[in-house]
Amino acid sequence: MKADFAGRRAGPGGPAQPFVTAALALLSAAAVLFVQHQGWTLYYGDADAHLMIARRILDSQTPGFEQIGLGWLPLLHLLTLPLVRVDAWWRNGMAGAIPPAICFVFGGSFFFAAARRIFDSTAAALAAVALFAINPNILYLQSIPMTEMVFFASLAALLYFTVRFGQTQGWLSAAAAGIAACAGALTRYEGWFVLPFAAVYFAAVARRRRVIVTLLFCLLAGLGPLAWLGYNWWMTGDCLDFIRGPYSPSGIQGAATYPGLHDWGLAWLHFRTAVQLCAGPGLAGLGLAGIAACLFKRVFWPLLLLALPALFYIINVHSGASPINMPSLWPHTYYNVRYGAAALPLLALAAGGLVTLIPRRMRAAAAAFAILASMAWWLVHPRPAAWAVFEEARINNAAGRERIRQAAEYLGPRYARGAGIITSYYPLTAIFREMGLPLRDTLMGDNTLPWLAAVERPEFFLTQGWAIVEGGDRVQTAIDRLGLVGARYKLEKQIIVGNQPVIEIYRR
Questions:
Q1: Do the domain assignments include residue 468?
Q2: What pTM was computed for the model?
Q3: Closest Cα to residue 163, out of 295, 287, 298, 301?
Q4: What range defines the domain where residue 255 resides?
Q5: Do residues 405 and 427 lie in contact, with contact meaning Cβ atoms separated by under 8 Å?
């Protein structure tokens, strides 16, 4: 891998760096406040789940780090811990929105500094970071409790420190790259996919003490995967439970087929279409042209690094039980469209590379033109319905949000603190957040042993005053069994919304 970049003499970010960071912070804060004002912060069911995981680490009948759960990597939940203690921020989702917003600012700052080093051009770097940051899909993702911006920050930091190492051969750059890679590996699984490529990069570009430098990076970067393997083994006895357990993608998808499964052509088509929806035609076109320009300028490693998450998702659609669906392709639904945003850093950096083809005195104008060309689509289509990531959240979980609202509205004035509520798993647990009910007053599937005792031997351990069930789940079965020995739960309320499972609320 060749570390031949135009920016060998460029500093970290030049005098423009603090202004870029300040602009990103203002943009981020405005987006967070707008999304919060509109009530969109917890439109994604996954966003609500991330928030609930962080809360139950602190507030639960069985608090502690075993509440981190399995499947999702833990870094976002850990970053949310200091904020989720505040009840108001937990209830409205702000506790989970602030960490991704901060990561957006840090990631954008690293992205700008990396682009400036790569291209030796402030104008090209400004174009790259602006083309990424002004995208409404990115602004929505950085305003909600989701992991994409946390991973972007780690990826941008990894890009910066690997490029810096290629130019300076500094040990601190190798160590910082390892820490950034570790953070990415504790955020999303595409971070694991990046690690061997980054290790090969260090082995290829280190000009002295190559083995030691590579081992330093591998040691620091590998701490994340090793910690997660160990946690899974400790919790389940299977260090690969996140791959083959009930909460893994294969466990959730089951035997159901989908377009792209074991079909490279369809996998590429669905991912490419998701990228187009997330990027918009302006950035997509500029990015594709920019890739050719970057290859011409021998910018190999940055393109490869930023292409790896996209490659990971194509492989995952093909063989990882992770479908991507959008309305324009069968089955004409939204599902995981946000995965297309993984390609936006690549397209934005490549589009910035286009600016370097222009004579230096005209690059500022070229950067402004590229930014306006990318914004044009969103200015012509200013409605949120044009934002694929937002539309996925709005449409997919609309019925789910409504039934949670109805359940909380019914239970809120009727529930007396201390009576106790038993339920199964998310998404029903979101009812408690809507009610503002401390989770220590509830018994959920995530409480593991106490919950298992209650559902397996209800005659001894099922004592809660209320039960919330989805017909046929294990809590429903426990209630029915308890009725056989004389203790009866009375059905108080049924909630039916769309094609969602029926929620039934019982009172003892």
A1: yes
A2: 0.95
A3: 301
A4: 14-394
A5: no
